[in-house]
Automatic annotation (TrEMBL):
<feature type="domain" description="UspA">
    <location>
        <begin position="156"/>
        <end position="291"/>
    </location>
</feature>
<keyword id="KW-0614">Plasmid</keyword>
<comment type="similarity">
    <text>Belongs to the universal stress protein A family.</text>
</comment>
<dbReference type="Pfam" id="PF00582">
    <property type="entry name" value="Usp"/>
</dbReference>
<dbReference type="InterPro" id="IPR014729">
    <property type="entry name" value="Rossmann-like_a/b/a_fold"/>
</dbReference>
<dbReference type="InterPro" id="IPR006015">
    <property type="entry name" value="Universal_stress_UspA"/>
</dbReference>
<dbReference type="InterPro" id="IPR006016">
    <property type="entry name" value="UspA"/>
</dbReference>
<protein>
    <submittedName>
        <fullName>UspA domain-containing protein</fullName>
    </submittedName>
</protein>
<feature type="domain" description="UspA">
    <location>
        <begin position="1"/>
        <end position="141"/>
    </location>
</feature>
Amino acid sequence: MFTTVLVPTDGSRGAEAAITHATELGQTYGATLHALYVVDTGAEPAALETDQRETLREPSERRGREATIRVTDQAEANDLTAAREVREGAPHTEILEYADEQDVDLIVMGTHGRTDVDHARLGSTTERVLTRSDTPVLSVRLREDAAGTDADVRPYEDIVIPIDGSDAAERAAETALDVAEKYDASVHAVYVLDTTTYDLKDAPQSIIGLLKEGGRAAADAVADMARERGLSATTSLRRGVPTDELLAYTDDVDADLIAMGTRGRNIGAGRLLGSTTARVVRRSTIPVLTVS
């Protein structure tokens, strides 16, 4: 399924966690690893002359070459085919264009994360990529204290699949099931009745019943598909704030991966799931696979 994996890197030590995940996936799938570094020309002062711009970019370009070489060296040390490139421009735009040009199957990116849910706005390169990408994106929490090691990557033994009845969530489930089958992982399908959208005290019990029934049916469908592939599967129906409930559930089942849609909708409502996905990506300590 993943034959070409793209790893955008900024050259930081913390980014090693994303590189290690990408390398492990490359080994599992026999994929080619592509390393990309983007010199952010949008950060340059507009009044600079051409020669001044070139002088300013030289250190960044050198850092980009060194960063991408580290990725390809690690890939080749694990007997993987690798390619690298340094580009200039807006990072998220260049990443998406490169993924399209190279027919990339998976983008693996680091995210610094943010535990302050009051600052729930998009802004980072990773978030811009995952909200615009037609290619699945694996977001990995970057480590600030040290370089990543092989010990940072846990086998994907338990995968959580949030369900909301949307097409995007179904596509995410299909991708997650492919990954689960490759790793012989257990699947945990979960639906959260969103108490921030529905006033459960005032809503008619018939409405609540329909929401529960729809969520349970969606989770059961994913579990059935997992079992058809010979995988262990469980389902859960929870209520509360979606991000909080999903993260708590991943802790409960000791999950190694979360797979979510990026443009889903809650069952019975028109609220976009994108904000929940973005918050989960920011706050999750385990990798999050997003599928549009």
